Amino acid sequence: MSTPTPTRTSLSTRPADDDRRPGELTFRELLRWIWRQLTSMRTALILLLLLALAAVPGSIIPQEGVDSLKTSNWQADHPKLTPVYDRLGLFSVYDSPWFSAIYLLLMVSLVGCILPRTWHYWRGMWAKPPAAPRNLTRLPDHASYVAAGEPDAVLERAQAALRKRRYRLSVDGDAVSAERGYLREAGNLVFHLAVVVVLVGFAMGGLLGYKGGVILLVGDQYGFSNTPDQYDDFDPGSLFDADRMEPFTFSIDDFSWDVYPTGPRAGMSRGFESRLRYQESIGGEEKSYELKVNHPLSIGSTEVFLIGHGFAPVITIRDGKGEVVYSGPTIFLPTDQTMQSIGVVKAPDAKPTQIGLEGEFYPTVAFSKQTGSYFSVLSKPADPLVSMLVYTGDLGMDDGAPQSVYALDKTKTTMLTKKNGAPYRIDLRPGEKVALPGGIGTVSFDRLEEWNKIQISQTPGKFLALGGVVLALIGLLGSLFIRPRRVWVRARREGDGTLVEVAALDRSGGGDVAVVVDELVKALQQQPEEKKQ
Amino acid sequence: MTDVQWESLSNWAVAACGIVYFLALLVHLAEWASLRKVPVAAGAASVASVDIPGGVAVATGPGGEDDGQVRRTEFLGRLGYLLTGLAVGIHLVGLVGRGMAADPDRVPWGNMYEFTLTGTFVVAALYVGLYHRLRLAWMAPIVVAFVLSVLMVAVIWLYSPVAPLTEALSSYWLVIHVVSAIIATGAFTLGGITSALYLVKERAPARESGYVARLPKLEVLDRVSYRLHAFGFPVWTFAVLITGPIWAHQAWSSYWNWDPKEVWAFITWVVYAAYLHARTTAGWKGRNAAILALVGVATLWFNFIGINYFSTTSQHSYAGAPAFETPDVDSGVLTVE
Ligand code: HEM
To answer: Which atom of ligand 1 is nearest to the CA of A185?
Structure first.
């Protein structure tokens, strides 16, 4: 398909088509041919499009590194597809071999393309503007007129006018050549090199850094010290070294927040603030910090973020013999904005039978006649209640397989029921206690505590990446908005007067040099009159 | 004024600007309809320098055609432009009202409705602002029709009452991020319209009459499109690769998470980088570049609306624990971006 756009300039670095002579290709030539293909503009373009395409699956298929829970759920739902997808790396697209291959090729292509151009640019920095083409009127944007004065006087004027417009000049024979906008190419080179810098910074974060989360109870009796085993989830880069972790410790002395009293989001929480007491190293000075959403605490190169909160009812279970088999704050995970939460309690040591509890926590409970169940009206604990079902039998904790603390393995248990067959449910408010039927034990809800979800991360190279993007942006602005153009003025004696030809060429393909020509012609024609006056 | 009054002012203003956009559209349609009768040659003859950006005025000048008709067309064109300008003003009132209606006052982009309201405003405002510079008269009916229909979609399907922003959303980085993303979206949308018209014009270059014949030359369309994209691309870079990550880092500890919104913002960025490359690669100029620009707009708007239906992955969900930034359905746009 031919395009009607005139090919004014060709800045393509595409190799000449006749580079390869079939049958005559030595190994070195082949390598050189491959290298030229790889560093051609067209390849860069195709690789860019491939990169965009390759990024798509990762936004549709759940990604392990983004949301592992969702990924495992998806895998459970699609047993047939999962092994296939897994082999294709579709659950971690962004570190899959094929995704890496594309961007590494792009990087090679980029460097291979940019380094020679930088060299070329460097040498060209001091070059004179190219001589005027023989026939200026062949250029798409040109103008000519007949002036009164001598050719030399016209050329003088042209030089003055062009110098004023910050062109670089050279005169040869009957023509002035001028060029400006050298920095555009510099901007372009800076942009492309900065892309490499960004990728290096990004890779450093991914390889050397880590990210982890911990749920920590509020209160100075609870604490956290920064070692991998203290995290609930810990996601290190592949070259991560635990020795580089900062040895800080902290506890949350106090946590406060409030609730929108009215309006469409009434009941929604806001204004979260945790008072953190921390030491940058063991035995170091004790400091405190108000940790808020969007206001992380930096300790060395590590940052600590407040990203979630919830309730932890303190529940005690005594077994049939009256022994305390479970006691402590139990983390319930909120499921909605009213902070209705779910949680489980496991007492595997209870006798005569193991006891497991599973149910909901409502900070401010209400009962809906419509649905026949409880719901939470407010995220603040004005009238808290835990409502749980009771399971007895084998909780499956003895076989050594790791179990989530937030889920109950019910396969070998039975749920307690009432005489009419309905589930037996225990509803407790703080300070209340119930005896389980059959004398298997008692459960009490002693008091309510709160927890914070703290995210901690160390991202080396982040300032390198940021600096790189800023640099790239600056380069890009230069590359896009500096207009490189060449202007030629030729003056020749013709008959009585001087034939003046002006032509201009826009080297970026985005400019409109007709205006430049018009304006310059006007300036050239005006000046002698001014002098006459 | 109370919040409720602000909110109803906003609703009133949105309705009013819709009506004014509609009037502007009618006027532009009348303008182009009356032009159908004027042969193109007459109008084209008046265009002295076609290399002036966007260099086609709507048929003016001393052709052989009926003077009265030309004057009427010119008048309609100017009237349409003025009406569009007026509508943009009322549109702005609608936006400001929306922000003032929230408690505390805030920027008006807490949900899809507000984002769309702002996005259409920027498209229209950029058009009005660049009208003279890039000579966008030929774009008038398309832009106004686009803004009007998207605005209607917003009012009918996306409307939701004023609500405060979730905590993680109140960060000035987010404000800068969203402002720049919206401005880039506006520029890209105008660029996409231009590229679409390029393709239409390319298929029928020799048409003698009708809207297509009145479009500027292919070269000019290509250049206007490039200018719009060249403006949009750095702004998008700033929004998606600088302020977005800075905010994400503040709010949830990691500046890039490969979250679907981020992935699509990145895809858009790469496609537009490819567009800029295409324009300087032999064989990809013109037509293919225009197609890439359309792919770019498609990814842009898919990211805004479509992705919410394909993927609901949330950040850092910890066994279902909603963190502060948990996206909820109606603020899906911003919370996961
Ligand atoms: C990560 C990959 C790349 C990205 C994101 C990228 C992006 C860009 C952008 C946005 C521009 C537009 C600037 C302008 O129009 O002036 C551009 C121009 C350019 N790129 Fe790339 N590029 C990449 C890779 C490459 C590669 C591999 C090559 C080498 C073949 C290359 C060669 C060029 C050239 C020669 C220009 C100048 C075009 C002109 O003068 O207008 N780029 N690039």
So the answer is: 40
User: What residues does ligand 1 touch, defined as CB less than 6 Å away?
Assistant: A 11, 13, 39-41, 44, 48, 106, 109-110, 113, 188, 192, 195, 479-480, 508; B 273, 276-277, 280
CB B225 within 8 A of CB B272: no
Per-residue pLDDT, averaged over A331-357, amounts to: 88
A148 touches chain B (CB under 8 A): no
CB atoms A466 and B246 under 8 Å: yes
Confidence of residue A531 (pLDDT cuts 50, 70, 90): very low
Q: Distance (Å, rounded) from C-alpha B119 to C-alpha B116?
A: 5
Q: What is the mean pLDDT of chain A?
A: 84
For residue B167, the chain A residues in CB contact (below 8 A) are 269-272, 293-294
Q: Is B337 within 8 Å of chain A by CB?
A: no
d(CA A461, CA A478): 26
Helix axes B244-252, B172-203, angle to 10 degrees: 140
Give the residue whose CA is nearest to atom 25 of ligand 1. A110
Rounded distance between C-alpha atoms, residue A235 and residue A210, angstroms: 6
Cis geometry, peptide bond prior to residue A264 (ω within 30 degrees of 0): no
Tokens of B148: 């009007």
- Residues 122-141 of chain A with CB under 8 A from chain B are 141
Q: Which of A230, A222, A232, A191 is nearest to A482 (CA)?
A: A191
3-state class of A169 per DSSP? strand
Q: Determine the pLDDT at residue B55.
A: 37
Chain segment A397-432, per-residue pLDDT in tens: 877 667 778 888 888 888 988 888 889 999 999 999
Question: If you measure from the C-alpha of residue A113 to the centroid of ligand 1, how many angstroms do you get, rounded to a whole number?
Answer: 9
Q: pLDDT at residue B281 above 50?
A: yes
Cβ separation of B282 and A7 shorter than 8 Å? yes
Over the stretch B108-136, which tens digit does the pLDDT of each residue have? 666 778 878 888 998 999 998 888 888 88
CA dist B243 and A473 (Å) reads: 12
Which of B228, B266, B215, B256 is closest to B50 using CA atoms?
B215
Residue A11 has pLDDT above 90, yes or no: no
Beta carbons of A315 and A361 less than 8 angstroms apart: no
A chain contacts of residue B324, beta-carbon cutoff 8 Å = 272, 293, 306-309
Residues 174-203 in B contacting A (C-alpha not used; CB under 8 Å): 202
CA B263-B265-B267 angle, 5° bins: 70
Question: B330: part of which helix (H) or strand (E)?
Answer: none
Q: How far apart are CA B326 and CA A67, in angstroms?
A: 13
Which of B223, B267, B276, B284 best tests ligand 1's pocket when mutated (most atoms within 8 Å of CB)? B276
Q: Per residue in B201-260, pLDDT tens?
A: 888 766 666 677 777 888 888 888 998 999 999 999 999 999 989 888 887 778 888 888
Helix, strand or coil, per DSSP, at residue A453: strand
Tokens encoding A95: 């570190």
Structure tokens at A47: 């690789």
CA distances from B263 to A70, A326, A529 (A): 17, 45, 62
Secondary structure tally for chain B: helices H, strands E: 13, 0
pLDDT for position B209: 63
